[in-house]
Specification:
Length: about 300
């Protein structure tokens, strides 16, 4: 009997650690919209919003197959966003900047990995609406996103599972969205985006020495239906699909291609002091990575 035949569990464990070390804890990095995001705000309006995001992830998948691992991840995020509406080349435009504090907790078979948290990267967005027909309820919006590596990062925390709140790389995305009123109170949204990722040159992963983590572009599409019950309350149902985004390190090939089908439910409540948004969602199907069992988002925005 050969040495390799004598150690199947060791080989399996090494392969699993290699998979974990090149996975993103929250791999999608897609630009999710809520349907009201496609409606241009009036020039001169400013907004400050505070959001709490809680995501629970469980089973780990590789190429469509669930691995025999009791994996549990809990991601909590507190997000502060400041935005302002204005005109750009005589068209409605909007800019925001946001900062977040993240907390990543593990349990189950991942419980030996130390919890981590801290400030995330600085995110910015600039949107412009080249076509606006308020009477027909028809809008076309374009947006550019940029994330700068300002968050807390420690390369040692990438050895088994990357639990850093910061990514130590630049990330950008371009997005186009279209919204159309179908009936008096029913609206339809469709949007697509592509995200690009700079290299992280300070990454261990499964390697014994520091190297580079690279990631291919990620493509995303989403659609939603929204119903406005009255001036105060609305509901939306969304579907998302993300594909691409494979990763590699200096000593590993391209792997962990993302193919995720997701859903989301959003409720909006307009109050005299601002807007309260409650979101719930999760994965329908995951090709590779941690299956998101559910995600809650509570956001309050004040306009002035």
């Amino acid at each position: 009997m050969t040495v390799s035949q004598c150690n199947p569990m060791k080989s399996r464990r090494s392969a699993l650690l290699g998979l974990l070390a090149t996975l993103m804890v929250a791999p999608a990095h897609a630009v999710d919209l809520v349907p009201l995001d496609v409606l241009p705000p009036p020039p001169g309006l400013s907004a400050v919003s505070l959001a709490y995001i809680s995501s629970h992830r469980g089973n780990l998948y590789r190429e469509g197959e669930r691995l025999e691992l009791d994996s549990r991840l809990h991601l909590d995020q507190l997000q502060l966003r400041l935005g302002h509406a204005f005109e750009l080349i005589n068209r409605p435009a909007y800019f925001y900047a946001q900062l977040a504090n993240l907390r990543i907790r593990t349990s189950g078979d991942l419980g030996a990995i130390e919890d981590n948290g801290g400030l995330g990267d600085l995110g910015m967005m600039l949107a412009i609406w080249p076509y606006v027909d308020r009477e027909a309820g028809r809008y076309v919006g374009l947006a550019a996103y940029l994330s700068l590596p300002t968050g807390q990062y420690d390369a040692d925390r990438t050895r088994v599972l990357n639990t850093n709140p910061g990514e130590n790389r630049i990330r950008g995305a371009l997005q186009a969205g279209f919204s159309q009123r179908l009936l008096d109170r029913l609206d339809w949204l469709v949007a697509g985006d592509v995200s690009w990722f700079g290299d992280n040159d300070n990454y261990f992963g499964p390697n014994p020495e520091i190297g580079t983590l690279s990631q291919q572009p990620l493509y995303s599409a989403q659609t939603a239906l929204s119903y406005q019950f009255n001036r105060m309350f609305a509901l939306s149902l969304s579907y998302f699909y993300n594909a691409g985004g494979a990763t590699r390190t200096d000593f590993t090939p391209w792997a962990n291609d993302i193919s995720v089908h997701r859903y989301g439910l959003v409720g909006y409540l307009n109050l005299p002091v601002g807007r309260l948004t409650l979101e719930y969602g999760g994965d329908l199907e995951t090709e590779s990575g941690f299956f998101e069992n559910h995600r809650w988002v509570v956001r309050f925005a004040h306009f002035f």
